[in-house]
Amino acid sequence: MGTHWGVNRSVAQIHALLYLSDAPLPAEDIAEALGLARSNISTALKELMAYAIVRRVHIGGDRRDHFVAETDLWELLLRISAERKRREIDPTLALLAELSERLATDKDAPEQLRERITRMHQFITTLGDWYDQMRQLPRPTLVTLMKLGRKIATFLPGKRDG
After folding, report:
1. 57 — phi, psi (to 5°)?
2. d(CA 24, CA 18)
């Protein structure tokens, strides 16, 4: 699945192995199970820990680092979405803001360019604001909203489901 979502194949394989494992695994066992180079394992584990979906744990009597994946699917969703927003949406938003400002004062820029960049900036800002608001909701409320789906429109004035 991970490769279809733009995740490096070995990162996705390691995450899957740790997610499905019933015990923390050391890097050597991960490398052996997946047939990957130790250096590849190390790089992938750093990536997974940066997303906060894998963490390092210590096992008494064993000097090696062991790794365990977050298994709460809602927590996985929230952590991955937060990191992707930080890495992808936030820099795009900053660039669009800068570009919008420059274009606003550039009278030589074509009008459709100014208008489209401004609309894109407003659109991405709206998405970011919506995301930030959803992240602040208690998990049960977020789950309920997601389960409601399009039925939520029935609660809006003048709107109908369908």
Report:
1. -130, 155
2. 7
Query: And the tokens for 26?
Result: 């050391």
120 neighbors 96 (Cβ within 8 angstroms): yes
Long-range contact pairs involving 152-161 (C-beta distance under 8 Å, separation at least 24): none
What Rg value do the Cα atoms of the chain yield, rounded? 22
Backbone dihedral angles phi then psi of residue 125, each to the nearest 5 degrees: -60, -45
- The whole model's pTM is what? 0.80
* C-alpha distance from residue 74 to each of 95, 118, 138 (Å): 30, 34, 12
Amino acid at 55: R
pLDDT in tens, 7-50: 899 999 999 999 999 999 999 999 999 999 999 999 999 999 99
Q: Could you tell me how many residues make up the chain?
A: 162
pLDDT tens profile 114-133: 999 999 999 999 999 999 99
CB under 8 A, 24+ apart: contacts of 118-121: 120/96, 121/93, 121/96, 121/97
Cα 113 to the center of its chain, rounded Å: 30
Shortest CA distance to 115 belongs to which of 107, 103, 127? 103
Q: Where does the pLDDT of residue 160 fall: very low under 50, low under 70, confident under 90, or very high at 90 and above?
A: low
